[in-house]
Amino acid sequence: MAEETSKIPQATSKRLPLYYRFLQNFANAGKKRISSSELSEAMKIDAATIRRDFSHFGALGRKGYGYDVDHLLTFFRQTLDQDEETDVALIGVGSLGNAFLKYNFQKNHNTRIVVAFDPKAPNDGKPISNIPVYHPDMIEEKIKELNINLVIFTLPSKAAQEMADRLVKIGVKGILNFTPVRLSVPDWMRVHTIDLSVELQTLIYFIKNDVKDSQL
Predict the structure, then answer these.
(1) Which NCBIfam families match (predicted)?
(2) Could you read off the pLDDT of 174-212 as tens digits, one per residue?
(3) Residue 2: how many CB atoms within 10 A of its CB?
(4) Same domain, yes or no: 75 and 92
């Protein structure tokens, strides 16, 4: 029997959408079954890690056969609630925010941005990439009206904590934070911070160390 979701390691949970994406690619290519080694080669993840991740959910495959692609797709679709769309709000329509609005998630995922907020927008809203954009004065009203629980931060750093405090008061459950600010929020709210400058510096560090290692 699969373990409860709350007991699944965080690292495993973060890989689940990746597994789903690559399994879709295999299915689109007409693949009916795959081995952990084939999935490992495609994803560049160790096969032992894949088998360990899958083991948290019970017997997903059979020894000597591998994994049934359609079965895995169905399982991960249900696990990730891929059949249920999640509406998202975006706060801050600068360069990065505009990029999100133009791309939007509904093209490839089960999430979609349905509303955005920016100080340059009027209270009655204006469309950008077919998404209504309102002044931040309308945040509480619109988020409650649209029953939104997930918000993306692409706003200036100086406004991030104050905005998070406002979202806490109306019960928003999650923030995908693209500012470098480490937000202070209650335990019941989940924040995932993606600091692009830190990610870039980390990549530079590994590139330099890879070079050094190859010269030893």
Answers:
(1) PRK05472.1-3, PRK05472.1-5, PRK05472.2-3, PRK05472.2-4, PRK05472.2-5
(2) 999 999 999 999 999 999 998 888 778 878 877 877 654
(3) 15
(4) no
